[in-house]
Amino acid sequence: MTGRDLAEFRAEVRNWCRAHVPADWRHRQTGVPDTEFVRFQQEWFQELRRAGYAVPHWPREYGGGMPIPEQIVLYQELAAHDAPRLVLAFVSVHHAAATLLAAGTQAQRQRHLPAILDGELWVQGFSEPGAGSDLAALRTSARRDGDHYVVSGQKVWASGAQYADWCLLLARTDPKAPKRHGISYFLLDMRSPGIEVRPIRQATGESHFCEIFLDQVRIPAEQLIGAENAGWKVAQQTLGAERGLTMLELAERLGNAGFRWLAEWCAQPGAGGRAIDDPVVADRLAALEIEITGLRGLCRDLVERHEAGNAGPADASIVKLYYSELLQRVMDFGAEVGGPAAHEVLRKPMSGGWESGAWVLDFIGSWEWTIPGGTSEIQRTIIGERGLGLPREPAGT
Ligand SMILES: Cc1cc2nc3c(=O)[nH]c(=O)nc-3n(C[C@H](O)[C@H](O)[C@H](O)COP(=O)(O)OP(=O)(O)OC[C@H]3O[C@@H](n4cnc5c(N)ncnc54)[C@H](O)[C@@H]3O)c2cc1C
Prior knowledge:
- The chain has 397 residues and is of the alpha+beta class.
- Helices cover 47% and strands 15% of the residues.
- The structure holds flavin-adenine dinucleotide.
């Protein structure tokens, strides 16, 4: 693709954003009942779909096929226009789709990929009490019973489980096998009898994630994905879907809306003058802008290396670690320079992250990002072992 084509594409997305990004979307997602949040997110997803922007990373035959340079432009423009993020469909369009494409049968793909485009929602049922970082320690069990599996156990921290139609479920099918070898991967219909979903209330007041209790839930055997007891490898493919372009999107949003708000906040006239006129504030703002520029460079490098097939084993961890900790620094600074006024906004949209523009809530929300997809400690271990070749931590089987 030539530079001129990309410039044309950028102009197209820009015009589309000007015409379609609802100016009042934060208001429409803030403090509203869940049903309205879901309706708004689904409408936005369909708006993007009509433009061909909803699943650019999927294969062409399923409605995607956008070249990587165009995807980068798309995410840059969506971020620059502060468009709503697809928080509700995130697991569906990334994790579920990647899993189905990598390990699903043709029937499973045909059943679910078009349905995801029509708004089918997925949740990732991996973590359990006692099996987070050490995911292979999971204890939810699945026992074969004729042409079904019978599943019992508990999942936790399942984002969006209260809205989900389907679940990517890991369960232990062979309790005697070494930890990673006795796990199977299922597609679970969340309307199956025996499932109870309990939302968990967070410090921000939201209930972004839930506990899922499974009591003798029957899953048809054709909803096993991959082979029995070979679910661990499939799970790695699911986890890999969180990396790459999704990080680029987040970095662009931090660099665009996030930093812009911070700079505008600092430039507002306050009782004691403008914060930006304090050289210490100006200095810290400049330092954060430099860090954000570094993050964007790292993300573009990651995407390009993925595309060229030469990404290093720790590249994604470096980006994830740097993004999540920089996000905290930006939000921390926003809450600090915001002073008492930053504490006044007490409601935030159910955006699943830091994107409310309410500094104190966003600071609390920013801590979420250092945990999922591997905590900062786990990322540092990966970078040390796989990136720098340091001696390995003693591991389980
Ligand atoms: C916003 C958010 C969304 C999430 N969404 C989902 C979801 O949709 N589906 C899902 O299945 N899960 C989800 N999770 C769960 C997430 O994957 C786990 O919280 C994460 O893997 C950490 O596991 P844990 O909470 O059990 O902590 P633990 O693993 O118990 O860790 C506790 C602390 O010990 C540290 N630690 C643990 N092991 C080591 C080690 N070997 N070396 C050094 N330090 C270590 C950790 O870094 C952490 O600081 C989500 C979590 C969050 C915060």
